[in-house]
Every structure is written in C-alpha cells, then in structure tokens.
Design goal:
- This protein is of the alpha/beta class and about 200 residues long.
- The chain is built from six helices and seven strands.
- Strands 3-2-1-4-5-7-6 form a seven-stranded mixed β-sheet, with helices on both faces.
Amino acid sequence: MADAAGVPASFFQTAYEGVPLWEIGRPQEDIMRLHARGGFRGEVLDLGCGTGHNTIYLASQGLSVHGVDCVEVAIERARANAERVGSKATFEVVDVLNWKKPGKKYDTLLDSALFHIFSDEDRANYAKTLASLVKVRGTLHILCFSDQEPGTDVPRRIGERELIDLFNMKGWLVEEIAEARYETNQHPDGARAWLATFVRHSS
C-alpha cells in the first residue's frame, strides 16, 4: 500500500528484477510535449531517471542532461541505452534524499515519477535538496500520480494542494499545475497525473 509512510527503497531494488511498472521503453509523451513548448533549457538534471529514456530524449534535443537514480541496475541499463544510440546523456547512482555532491546548480530539474514515492517527512527533505540544486530563476517540473487516479497501491496519489503547499512561497512560485497522464506498462491510456511547474525565485 502507498500511504503517508511512502514507498520503501527495497521495492525498487526488487522491481528491477523484472520489468517495473514505469518502464515503457521510451520517453513519456507529456515530457516530450513539455519540451516542445520550451519547458527545458540549459543544464538539466533528471531525478529518479530509471533506465534513462526521458534523459536520453532530452539530450537528443541538444540539451546537457544528467540522470540520477538510487538503483544501480537502473543506471547500468540507462548507460547501455545511451551507448546504444550514441547519446551524450550522463548517468550516476545517487540517492537524492542523501545528496552529498558539491554545489553544482542546474537550470532545469525534472522529476518524472519520483516525488509520489516519498513519505511526508521525505518530501520536506526532498524539497530542500531541490532548492540546493537549481539556479535562481531555474525551473522544476514534477510529473506524478494524481489523487484522481483510482486505487491505493504504489505509488501514492497526490493532491494539487499538496504540491502547492510544499513549494509555493518557500523560495518557489507556481507557474502551472495541469492535468496530465503518466504512462506505464499497465495503464493503456496512462494513469491520471499532474504535471506541475515551479520557478525558483530565491537562493
């Protein structure tokens, strides 16, 4: 069950023993549409990148993109996927809740299906990490399951107000929160989701 305690890290290690729910073998349609309307610029950090399809797609569009994930096998597969197509995307095993890398800051942060796994406590820690990783006037995009998607299984369902309350007026401004679809290999038409965009207005 996905509740306020979040999804344990062990779930993801086990998931990659097979084909995880979120692995569709290509980038998310809503991420490609977001790029088409100018949503990404400069240096991009893809948080919880999995096997790297969003990362590789954005790199193919001329962006400098670095993907991180806490699951080593996911990063190994991401690197293999990048090598297969000659992508310049780079990948690294990183636990974003225990970020210890020195102070590089990015122009754009992408969270495609990471935020909705965290516990309430981890959300607060994650928000602090994000603030330390983005430049002033930089952008954060979050694609996550919506509370309009039926079910109580993994991942957590997120309300629009939860996104606003965590970020708005805490060094971030809400640019847009729109209904979206998160594609999985078990949701033929995609799960109901939010695509939220925030802009960092202070250091």
